[in-house]
């Protein structure tokens, strides 16, 4: 029997950038093993529709047991683990194919939202214990990252034992140097943190950790 798969996706660059930390991290972890689990990395286009279609194809081909999608979030300063995917595309900028949907559902007729099913609080706790800054985010935005996160959670609902989630990463220093004031994190730190988060997720059994990670508006 083939080993259980941990699918790790990243995105191609977008918004005028020439690099996207999410793909740099994913490809660095390709082939790593956590106990039984082996990481398969894949790069998604930053395009509404195509990104979700590619992800669904990967889910059908690989039948992964865990899925973590990664994305870049300029302005975020830590490992930002998303709690909730919402059924809306509302693009402030065009995607890489020039599409800019406004108030279009990701899945026509789908539920308003899905929660991540990876142990997100245990992942945050594990990162902090290792001295890496991490938090739960209550919104993945309404661009292609949320689109993929929603498509993922919609696709794996009802697939027994499959756990999915999304993590946003800060800019790389080489990106932030052109955008003064925005936080950044070195690639090696991002790789260490995502590796740790995958290990926590692959080992976790039972309910997620119980600790407050909410926000007061
Ligand atoms: N970040 C974008 C899309 C691709 C990416 O890496 C987002 O947050 O929606």
Explain what you see.
- The mean pLDDT is 96.
- The relative contact order is 0.22.
- This protein is α/β, with parallel strands linked by helices.
- The chain has one domain (5-203): 3-Layer(aba) Sandwich (Aminopeptidase), CATH 3.40.630.
- It contains six helices and eleven strands.
- It has helices at 21-29, 50-62, 120-129, 144-156, 173-176, 187-203, and strands spanning 5-11, 33-34, 37-44, 66-72, 79-82, 84-86, 89-90, 102-104, 113-115, 134-137, 163-169.
- α1 (21-29) packs across α6.
- A hairpin with a 2-residue loop joins β2 (33-34) and β3.
- The structure holds pyroglutamic acid.
- Pyroglutamic acid binds next to β4 and α4.
Main sheet specs: 7 strands, mixed
Level of helix content?
Answer: 25-40%
Q: How would you sum up the global shape?
A: globular
CATH architecture field: 3-Layer(aba) Sandwich
Structural class of the secondary structure composition? Answer: alpha/beta
The ordered H/E elements are: EHEEHEEEEEEHEHEHH
Number of domains: 1
Oligomer class: single chain
